[in-house]
Amino acid sequence: MTRSTRILWAFPLAAAAVLAACAPDTTAPGRTAAAPQFAMAAGTDSYIVAFKGNGVPADFAAQVAALGGTVTSLHTGAGLAAVSGLSNAAAAQLAAAKDVSEVQPDALISLDVRLAAADGGTADDAVASQSNPTTAARYSWQWNMRLIRADRAWAAGKLGSAGVTVAILDTGIDYDDPDLNGLVDLSRSASFIASDDSLTATYFPTRNLISDYHGHGTNVASQVSSKAVALAGVTSKTTLIGVKVLSAQGSGPLSAILNGVLWAADHGADVANMSLGGGFVKAGNGRYVGLINRTFTYAARQGMLVVVAAGNGLTDLDHDGNALPTYCGVPTVVCVSAVGPATATGNPDAFAYYSNFGRSAISVAGPGGNADAANGFPVSAWPWGNDIASWVWSYCSKTRIAGFTSSGVPVLTVCVAGNRLTGYIGTSQATPHVAGLAALVIAETGRGNPSQVKARIQQSADDLGQPGTDPFYGRGRINVARALGL
Question: pLDDT tier at 40 (50, 70, 90 boundaries)?
C-alpha cells in the first residue's frame, strides 16, 4: 500500500447548475442557510410533454413532425414524452393540442461543480471478502459502515440478495472494478446521455455505455453493494443496474433523469438511488413539479422506492422562498441529509457542514462525510493518514476523464490502472447508504411495497434531534441493524 496523498480538484463554475449531491465546496461556513441554485434551460429546442391521462396519442409523432420536431422518447404508462427541434412558437402550438396537458422546456441538471475528492493510493493487495465484508482490505477506513451498524447485520448473515435490484441514476458505473465486478446487470443497464455514448463509440468501443467517465456514479454504487475486495458496501450481494443520466461533465437534461426513473421502474428495480438534489424556481417553472410528481407516482405504482439526496447548499428546504425542493418535495421519496465526523476523534453523527435540511423535507440522515468548517479544516490522524475530512471511499473509475486534448481526445487519470481508491463527501454519499439499507429490508420483507420500506427505515433510525421538530436529521440517522430487527 503506497502512502496516501490528498488531491483536491476545483472545477470552474458551470452556468446555472442545480445543486446536486456531489462533494461540496470546502470553504462553506457553519450552519447558515444559503441561497439555492436553480435549473436552467438545457436547450432552446428541447421540451418535455405531458399528456392528459396516462396515454400517448397515436398520432403524436406525426403532430411533432408537422411542427418541425422529433420525438426523442415517450412513455405511455406515465404519459410523458421528450421532443426536440421545436421553435418556441411550435412548442406553444403543441401545448394547445387537445391531448396535451403541458409542454415545458427541458432543464439542465448538474452536479455541484466544485468537487472535492481525496486519492487514497492503490489497493492492489486486496482479495474478495463478500461473505465477511469486515475483512475488506481497507475496511478500517470505513467509519461510515460502522456508524450505521452495517457490520452487525453482516455478522448476522444479512448480506442482501441478488434477487433485489438497486438502480444507480448517475454518471454511470465502472462496472468491472474489483468491488463491483459481477454485481452490475448490464443487460438491464442503460445510458440516456448521447454525448457520452459518442465518447464510448469513438474512444472506448469495448466498454458498455454506462462506463463512468466522471467517477461520481462509481463511488455512489459502491456504497450500495460491493464484493468487499477493498471496501465494503451496505450489502455485498444486491444486484445493481446502471442508469446513466449525467455526462462526463456531471450534467444532463431533466428529460434524461425522468426517463431514467421510468426505465428503472420498468426494468425490475426495487430501489432507485438519485444522488441529485437541488430545486426549481416557482415563478415560471412551477409546472416542472407536475412532471416530476407524475414520474415518481408511476415509479411508486411499479413498486420502486426512490431515495434522493437533499443536496449540498446548506439550504433550509422548508423555508427557501421562491424555490421548490424538487425530488425531496415528492411525498413517496426518501430524502437524505448527511452526517459525519469533522475530525478523526469527533462526533460521527455531527451534521455535515454543507447538507441541506428541513423539518418536513428530510426523511433520514446517512453518513456523507464532514470536516470542521468553523475551524479551518484542521488536519487529523485518520486511518488513511493525516487529513482534513472524513471521506466516503471507493475504487476510482478506470475511465475517469481528466480533460481533453486540443483535438478532443479524452485524457484519462491515474485511475486507469484500476487499483486506485478515491474518497468523496456529500449528501450524494449519504444517500446510497439508505438505498443499500432499503435493499436489505426488501430482501427480508419482499418486493413491491415501497411505502412500507420507507416507514421501516424511518422508524428504526437513531433519533439525533428533537422528535417532530428537528430540521436536520429527519426521523434520525439510519441504523441497519435495528431496521433488520437485530
Answer: very low
125-180 pLDDT tens trace: 667 788 999 999 999 999 999 999 999 999 999 999 999 999 999 999 999 999 99
The answer to whether residues 396 and 476 belong to one domain is yes
Give residue 70's domain range: 43-105
Residue 219 and residue 248 in one domain: yes
Residues 456/140/241/16 CA torsion (nearest 10 deg): 90
**All residues at 6 or more sequence positions from 191 whose CB lies less than 8 Å from its CB, including other chains:** 172, 197, 200, 209, 210, 243, 244
Cβ–Cβ < 8 Å for 434, 223: no
* One-letter identity of residue 420: R
Query: pLDDT, tens digit, for every residue of 319-353?
Result: 766 666 668 888 999 999 999 999 999 999 999 99
Those residues with Cβ within 8 angstroms of residue 221's Cβ, 6 or more apart along the chain or in another chain: 168, 170, 173, 180, 184, 240, 242, 394, 432
The C-alpha torsion from 190 through 195 and 198 to 203, rounded to 10°, is: -100
DSSP codes, 271-326: EEEE----BEEHHHHTTHHHHHHHHHHHHHHTT-EEEEE--SS--BTTS-TTEE-G
pTM comes to 0.90
For the chain, the domain total comes to 2
Identity of residue 94: L
CA distances from 12 to 17, 234, 249, 282 (A): 12, 33, 11, 27
Summarised one tens digit per residue, pLDDT across range 213-251 is 999 999 999 999 999 999 999 999 999 999 999 999 999
Among residues 219, 136, 164, which one has the least CA distance to residue 394? 219
Q: Which cell goes with 113?
A: 461543480
From first CA to last CA, the distance across the chain in angstroms is 35
Whether residue 458 lies inside any domain: the answer is yes
**Residue whose grid cell is 437485530:** 486
For residue 70, how far is the Cα from the chain centroid?
Answer: 30
Amino acid (one-letter) located at 1: M
Element (H, E) at 264: helix 254-266
Give me the helix-helix angle, 216-224 and 427-445, nearest 10°.
30
CA atoms within 13 A on the CB side of 150: 36
How many CB atoms are located within 10 Å of the residue 473 CB? 26
Cell of 458: 424511518
Here the cell at position 448 is: 413491491
Q: CATH number for the domain including 63?
A: 3.30.70.80
CA distance 177 to 419: 8
